[in-house]
Specification:
The chain is mainly β. Helix content is 0%, strand content 59%.
Length: 107
């Protein structure tokens, strides 16, 4: 797992910090309500899994890997607050250096 405060993650300017709250990994979370905000991570591996919170006021996002749209309109909306949820994942590519990016959308 990689924490949201890991220096390898590059956030656009609209992201905020939320926490500490019970159930958060390492007691922090990032959030954005701004369409077009991005978070990018360069990593070495065979896949990427996005873990986060679902709640009534959460939005959707797109997931890109190496510049290619892999998951569109991933919902983070739920009728109750659910932390540490697997929101989406992309696996099965060969062990390699890759870039993942999430892009915030409307809810």
């Amino acid at each position: 797992k990689i924490d949201d405060r890991d220096s390898r993650i590059e956030y656009s300017s609209g992201w905020g910090n939320w926490g500490p709250q019970e159930g958060q990994y390492e007691k922090t979370e990032k959030y954005s309500n701004t369409v077009g905000d991005t978070a990018e991570l360069y990593f070495y591996g065979t896949g990427v899994r996005v873990i986060g919170m679902k709640n009534t006021d959460c939005r959707t996002f797109d997931l890109y890997v190496d510049g290619e749209l892999k998951k569109k309109d991933v919902s983070t909306t739920s009728s109750t607050c659910q932390r540490q949820q697997v929101l989406t994942e992309v696996t099965g590519f060969g062990q390699r250096d890759s870039q993942s990016k999430i892009s915030c959308k409307t809810g």
